[in-house]
Amino acid sequence: MAVFQGMKERTIVSWTSVIDALAMEGRGKEAVAVFEEMKTAGVRPDDVAFIGVLTACSHAGMVDEGYGYFESMRMAYGIDPKIEHYGCMVDMFGRAGMVERAMEFVHKMPMKPNPIIWRTLVAACRAHGRLELGETITRNLLNEYPAHEANYVMLSNVYALTRRWKEKSEIRREMSKRGIKKVPGCSLVELDGEVHEFIAGDESHPQWKEIYMMVEEMARELRRAGHISATSEVLLDLDEEDKEVALQWHSEKLAIAFVLLRTPPGTQVRVVKNLRVCSDCHAAIKCISLVYNREIIVRDRSRFHRFKNGSCSCNDFW
């Protein structure tokens, strides 16, 4: 923002870059304010700028504002929405828990929905308990795109959430038969110019014993603070106690434990993850930021999360 405000000349690219950055931080109102400032400055928004402002509304739960911008594309600017804009709208409805409205929106699209839109809808179904609908959509995806790893993983996860372990095993066998492997989640941190990579349950780090001890201490402190593990996130046939243990060793928690061990109190923690952070880790990291008085920034597959004093910049529209 400081660089942007110091620019003598601003193009549509400059404006859009700022809007996109604010969207990824969950700062939807600020992103919308910049979008409106751009229009006031006489810069006409293009289709890419609209993707930015729709993403900002989606990541901040600003449904009414987002729908208004979507409608204005054609009405005020003569821009026909592309499939990316429809995808932003489906994502926005889904994050806000409006699964039926998202489904209705997909059915009214003037073009055929692509797999990304369907997978976005499945993610919303999973997050908001519409597992039967999610299973139906995923099965259709699997029939149409049998070689895509994500479709198998999504269906496997739906079976696990509904405790249909036999069906889950069958899907995993089918993946193995086709040579399809699930991408493992990993978290990266940089310390003193060196990058450290962590995978769930990994014992390859030279300090893994100390890290595991720190994770156990974190778990005790979180329990004292009232944190309850989201065991529904463990998609394995285990009892509740074992599920809690499985959640404890997620890669984000290992990475954070390592930084807590190696840095003085008050040092900012920065983690990069290759997948989207799970709901249990999201809730746990909020609590860690409060208990240990640390600002923790997690860059996952789709956005930045800034955890501080027990809350996250995404306001839980993650």
Automatic annotation (TrEMBL):
Matching PROSITE patterns: PPR
Key words, A-Z: Repeat, Transit peptide
Gene3D superfamilies: Tetratricopeptide repeat domain
Per-repeat ranges for PPR: 11-45
GO biological process, one term: RNA modification
Residue ranges occupied by any DYW domain in the UniProt entry: 226-318
A Pfam entry, by short name: E_motif
Keyword Ribonucleoprotein: no
Record carries keyword Repeat: yes
GO terms for MF: RNA binding; zinc ion binding
InterPro entries named in the record: DYW_dom, E2_motif, E_motif, PPR_At4g14850-like_plant, PPR_rpt, TPR-like_helical_dom_sf
Record-given protein name: DYW domain-containing protein
